[in-house]
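Hi all, long-time lurker, first post. I run a small reading group and we've been trying to get comfortable going from sequence to structure in the token notation. Rather than ask abstract questions, I figured I'd post a concrete chain and ask someone more experienced to write out its structure so we can walk through it together at our next meeting. Sequence below, copied exactly:
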Amino acid sequence: MIEAKGWVTAQVGERFAGHNRVLGVIASLLVGLVLLDIYLVPLPHPGAVWVAVASLVLAISLLITRGLLPNGQLKASLELVLLLVYLLAVCWFTGRTDSPFISAIYLVLMATSLTLGRRITYLMAGLAVASYSLLAAGESPPLWSQVPGYLIRVFPFILIAHVGAILAGETEAARAEVEHLSLTDDLTELNNMRSFEALALQQERLARRYQTPFAICMLDADNLKQINDRYGHLAGTELIKWTAQVVRSNIRESDIAARFGGDEFIILFADHDKEQILPAVERIVRAMSSCPFSYDGDLIDCTLSAGIASYPWDGDDLKSVVKQADLAMYRSKRLGKNRVSLAETDAEHAEEQEHAGARERTGGREQLKVRGEKLGSGVPQLDGKRSSVHLRKGDLTRER
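-- Answer (accepted) --
Happy to help. Here is the structure in token form:
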């Protein structure tokens, strides 16, 4: 069952918050180093004053941006540009292209590549080259009058930006892969319960705010134990994979499906109640019963039992709605499996008692159906020989 616990995601704002903290530390250390340098190696009077003023302006500007702008790409970009302008001013009064702080521009480029991606990094490299050229313009003769020497001086800016952008791309790809693995069930490629909980709790908040419904469907494979006993646990694993494929191919992109555990699955349908999504869930159950899965050359039939509950009629929060859907699913099993039950009503309770009595009289025996067909080139319904079952717009429209 879903517990009301916190769930941390690698959201963009959170990642930029860490980058901004690091940038703040870098800016503070750089300003401190500049002030220490002009204290130990005094500059001519106007130069020292202008460097001190530039340091004060940078500090005030960073405070303003951090107070007014949210964490994100715009804020990080603006702060890095401010830091580059500050370095340009400091280098102008401390030796221009021979300034001891000229190499700090490399630090800005690396921070940009690790924070803002390849395109902005190349743009920042262009700004760095322009800044260096401006510093060189104050020399006599101008540095670019000697083209080879000028190119050798500016090439490191471009090289560092390019290498940093490549490393940042590799790091981002690795982070995305780790995030995908942490949010996905490795067996079925559906959401795991960690990611489902985050998305479902977000939907719950939206439903509360806008007074809209949502429905929870619980699904359970009916024959897992029998398949494990007859064919082994590898066949049971194939059943779980097949069930996930049936579920995935019969829901919309906006629906949220996850492996709840074992052979149980959970689906959240936003903006619809249980009666509206009943036809859609029935189509999933029918698709499973009509499409066997293959194992070791045999086509094995399996069915699903499903239960549906919806907010706010069957519970005032996500946890209680999931509980009611779970109870409805087990009622489907008691009624004979291969069916869908809505959250309990008096009529359904009476029907359940009737079916339970009938099952007791027959001993409650069920047999696993094995078609015994040898596969020629794959599962027929995946080769286009059997029509697939998908949601239609009318499936989510309540009949009046």
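A couple of things your group might point at:
Residues 147-183 form the longest helix (37 residues).
The first strand starts at residue 214 and ends at 221.
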